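Researcher: Quick test of sequence recovery. Tokens follow.
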């Protein structure tokens, strides 16, 4: 397929791998912070295409994976109430809460529906005026415009039975938190191209300057990933720290102003808890007061719900790049895709799921 196959071209891949080998003279550690990039790296065995001096570590780039356990429990509590339809993207249905998941309560009779867009949930609310319809809205900046638009559209249609359970996270504050960790070994970043397509590049310049770290905005195909690694290594080898944007086919420095406008009209920046990591200041979106009629946390009594992570799940260390999935004692033993202990083994963007699918077929449970 044109515009896709060319970014999987084996000759280009090999050329980039050779160029990286020629460039590197010492060890470097680079983190990608996008689950789609993680899956490309593992699926195409990119770690073994590049020199052993380069260590690739996987950051908290899976929005489903970093959704707090407490929010999963809140979604379950909402779905178990009478006259409620809980809607969500498919990945969220199998993410384990403290005791169960959305799929299991659906099997027990709760009205839980998978949708492909939050606007599908708005339509369901319009078709079911006697039910409260809640959309479980998770994601990075990429999904925020559509989730904000669902609220705008629900208001336009005068729907009083639609709300969203909001758990949005933001990438630049997460990078700041990772680099502020005294144990951090990260020397360069591959930034998520789809996030920058919405938000632009301006928020990354202060990170480059403050932490003296190269950041390369990268796409999702093998050529994209290897080009990003090459540009990061070139900077590291030369002692530079800059923001590069080789993904300019999609990312404009100012991003998408229309998408940003609808985000800013409905959401405001707030502190946010990340599953396995904890609270990161100003790292999420919450619904503005003027739209509180569409806030499921305001509509339902959820304040009493607290949650504690399973001690068997090391997803926090994995999401911070401090542990590879295969280094988790539960990987492939107590935890596998049909029996996940944590979200990284469930989500299509989770690092644990990627390693289980692509690196250990002969060992699967």
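Model:
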């Amino acid at each position: 397929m044109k515009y896709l196959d060319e970014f999987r071209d084996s000759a280009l891949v090999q050329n980039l791998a050779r160029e990286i080998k020629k460039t590197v003279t010492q060890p470097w550690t680079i983190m990608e912070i996008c689950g789609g990039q993680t899956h490309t790296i593992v699926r195409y065995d990119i770690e073994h295409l590049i020199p052993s001096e380069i260590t690739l570590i996987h950051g908290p780039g899976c929005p489903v994976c970093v959704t707090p356990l407490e929010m999963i429990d809140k979604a379950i509590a909402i779905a178990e109430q009478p006259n409620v339809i809980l809607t969500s993207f498919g990945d969220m249905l199998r993410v384990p809460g403290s005791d169960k998941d959305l799929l299991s309560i659906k099997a027990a009779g709760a009205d839980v529906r998978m949708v492909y867009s939050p606007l599908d949930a708005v339509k369901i609310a319009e078709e079911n005026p006697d039910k409260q319809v809640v959309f479980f809205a998770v994601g990075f900046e990429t999904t925020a415009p559509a989730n904000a638009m669902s609220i705008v559209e629900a208001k336009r249609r005068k729907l009083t039975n639609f709300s969203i359970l909001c758990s949005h996270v933001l990438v630049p504050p997460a990078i700041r938190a990772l680099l502020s960790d005294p144990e951090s070994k990260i020397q360069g970043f591959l930034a998520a191209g789809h996030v920058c397509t919405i938000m632009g590049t301006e928020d990354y310049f202060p990170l480059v300057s403050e932490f003296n770290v190269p950041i390369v905005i990268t796409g999702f195909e093998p050529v994209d990933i290897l080009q990003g690694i090459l540009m990061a290594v070139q900077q590291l080898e030369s002692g530079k720290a800059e923001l590069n944007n080789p993904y300019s086919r999609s990312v404009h420095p100012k991003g998408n102003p229309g998408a940003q406008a609808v985000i800013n009209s409905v959401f405001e920046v707030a502190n946010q808890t990340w599953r396995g990591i904890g609270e990161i200041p100003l790292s999420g979106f919450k619904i503005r007061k003027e739209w509180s009629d569409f806030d499921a946390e305001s509509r339902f009594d959820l304040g009493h719900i607290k949650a504690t992570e399973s001690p068997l799940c090391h997803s926090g260390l994995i999401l911070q790049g401090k542990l590879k999935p295969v280094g988790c004692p539960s990987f492939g033993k107590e935890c596998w895709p049909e029996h996940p202990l944590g979200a990284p083994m469930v989500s299509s963007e989770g690092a644990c799921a990627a390693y289980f699918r692509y690196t250990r077929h002969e060992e699967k449970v």
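The mean pLDDT is 92.
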